[in-house]
Structures are given as C-alpha cells and as structure tokens.
Amino acid sequence: MTPQDMEARIVRYGDLRPCRTAFIDAHTPGSDQKENFTIIGGGVSESADQHVHITIPHGFNIGAAGQPPKCRNSLHSHRTAEVFFVLKGRWRFFWGRRGDAGEVVLEQGDIFDIPTGIFRGFENIGDDYGMIMAILGGDDAGGGVIWAPQVIEDAADHGLVLSEKGKLYDTKAGRSLPEGERPMPVLSEAELKTFPEPTTMQVVGGYVRRYWDLVAISDKAPARVIGETAIIRDKPGFDVDFLTRPSARTEAASHDRPAVLMPVRGHWRIGWDGGAATLAPGDTMSVPEALAYTATPSMSGEAALYRVVGTDDPAGQTWKG
C-alpha cells in the first residue's frame, strides 16, 4: 500500500472538522460552545451538517468532543458501548437521571468504559480547551442517542426540536419538522425507572482506568485494557490495547479487521511494506485488515498509544448493579 493510500486513512488533529450543531443541546446555555467530531463512521450526530472523515466500516465508530472550560455535554444514554479517553484537559464525568448519582474526574490518558443504559454527561473543568476521544460500538452506533427529558425540554426553549427519527431541526433558522413527522417523545416516568443510578464507588472501580496505572503494567507487553479477558472485562464490540515505549515491538502485527491507532503522548512511527507515517497526539489512523505494520516511538521521551480492533460482540456491558 502506497503512502498516499495510507494518508487517506489518517485524520490529522489539525484537519479535524468540527460540527457545532451536532446535538439537541447545541443552543442550550452551558452546552452551546461544544464541538463534535466524527472521525470514523457516522457516529450518533443528529445534524446533517456533521462531516464524517472516514466512512469505511470498522464495526465501531471513532469520534471526539472538544469543549472550552465550563462547557458540558448534556445527560444522555446509548444502546451500545461508549468508551472515552482524555486527549487534552481535565474532565468531570457524571451520571444518573439528574446527573447526581455519581461522578469521576479524568486526566490526560485516563479511560472510561461507560456501561450502556445509564444516563451520562461530561464537562471540561480544566483551564483550556479540552478534547476527549470516543469509541462507540457498532457501525450505526446503536441507532442514536436517548436524551434525559429535561434536555429535550430545555432545547425546545432555545429553538431546537428532535424528530422521532432522530433528526435535528432548528426552528430559529426556519427549519420545522416535516409534515406528518412528530417530535421525539420524552421518556415516561416508568421508562426512566429502568435507568440505573449506580454510585461513584460502583462505577469507578470497574470501568475507569488511570493512565499512569496503564503505563506501569505495559512495561513489557501491550496491555489489553478492554476485552473479554482484559483489565476491564467487557465485550463492547471492540478490544482496546495500550502501548508504551517499553511495550512497543519492532515485529510487525496484523489483524483480521481494520485497526485504529490513536496516540495519547509522543510521536509514533507506523511502518508497513511500502511506506511509513508519523502520528502525533490527536491523530487517528485506520490500518487495513491483514496489513502487517509496526508501531514504535519515533522520538525520545514519553510515548503512549491506544489501539482499537473490532470484534463480533454486539453492544457492550449493560449495568447490572
């Protein structure tokens, strides 16, 4: 494969194209400055304005959220897996019907495998623009987002209406629901009671892993962070590995499905028969299935990288209490 062919499968951090109207809370004060990025796959964006960088099916989606300080993403749930790792900044994740059941603060490189079926949100509590990377299970990411009722109601007060088909319409811009199409109904009280309210202690111990802990255990071989027999035992439709300088190998690896490489720290040289490319933090690279490649740090200093490869598992762990 030529370097030109592979460059088409790399999304550089500086080339990311944000969408500022991706979700129903895009006009709600406190959430109206966030930027959504859809890097691989269609994700769960509700806006026709969302740009998709790589459309090749991987069995999962890669996206990102960029937010200035004090900006938050409203409470929502997914039917498939949602995994975040922090690329830049300091973030507070919170969950529960009202967002007060539990919370955890994550720093650069920390990873959070959020169980399906729980309302969750997040906010940038750092001092600068922050970025979190997201992995969503399934090629269609489970058919969209389930919003907490108050999010839908607040959005309507600011001109945004979500259709029952999951499409967003900005009434302030003169866009109304098509004839015969109804707005997305809010969940009933009976439906809301089916969404668990786990505590901080219940969630953090099983679903959060800290960057420096992963660095410590990947000193001889890549650490399997998420997977059936991994540190976080889950089957979300993909495996997540963590590579550092000591665990990087010059021997080539290959997979029976496309692999996605996302550096957290340092610069990484990705080599294959026919060429090589260098990735920096924030870059995302899709390696074709069956292509043998090497991943090694290209400069001295700290280096860490997350690798994602799809599996046949459909959705991810649902909270069971």
Automatic annotation (TrEMBL):
Kindly give the Gene3D superfamilies that the UniProt entry links to this protein.
Answer: Jelly Rolls (2.60.120.10)
Residues passing through the membrane, by range: none
In this chain the Cupin type-2 domain maps to: 69-133
**What protein is this chain from?**
Cupin domain-containing protein
